[in-house]
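Limitations

Structures in this collection are predictions, not experimental determinations, and the ligand pose is part of the prediction. Treat each record accordingly. The example that follows, with flavin mononucleotide as the small molecule, is included so readers can see exactly what is and is not provided: the inputs are given verbatim, and the output is the predicted complex.
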Amino acid sequence: MKKSIPATNDFCPQTLFLYGTYKEDGSPNFGLFCWLSYYWDSEMGVMACIGGEKLTKDRINATKIFSANLVTEDLLPLADYWGSADKRKANITAEVEKGRILDVPILTKSPWAFELEVNQSIDTNDGIVYLCKVRNVLVDESLCDDSMTHEEKIKKIKPAQTVGGTYFAWDGNAIGLWGEPMKNISKM
Ligand SMILES: Cc1cc2nc3c(=O)[nH]c(=O)nc-3n(C[C@H](O)[C@H](O)[C@H](O)COP(=O)(O)O)c2cc1C
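Predicted complex:
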């Protein structure tokens, strides 16, 4: 038996990324995003949707470049904070380096980052969809070890996921509601 329900992405797990841009004063800004996927145009591209008004959106529109840093379980408290309305209340610092190809901030602790350049933008009524060229994929050296399987590598980095306002660990266990992991920031 099937039932029709209102539009929702519950039960469609999403991978989390921190988008990095430089603010006008040159300091880095990171925002948490999960509406990211991939498309094909003779090479792999990344598509990213930003809803409403966001600083990240303003900076991408101004510079046409950004980084997308994979959020792991270790990074979740910080990511959760950067996804909240409180994020500008405290000055949380993190180790940041520069992209190798594009002038974008990269989170050192993220094991996998895309350096992205916007190729096309599609304005929706209340948001924007960016179709991006992948200018570089910057990864921890350990992920380039050909003696390890993909299973071993992904179990090592443990990407965090989200479904229906809840964060999930790579093993499928719930690890907090949105707004909870940031309470552990001081323990990071
Ligand atoms: C788990 C999670 C996922 C999010 N994903 C998105 C997203 O894909 N698109 C979006 O527009 N906002 C998303 N947000 C909201 C932004 O993270 C939030 O508005 C943040 O303040 C953006 O940073 P900025 O103000 O520096 O641009 C998400 C928030 C959370 C907690």
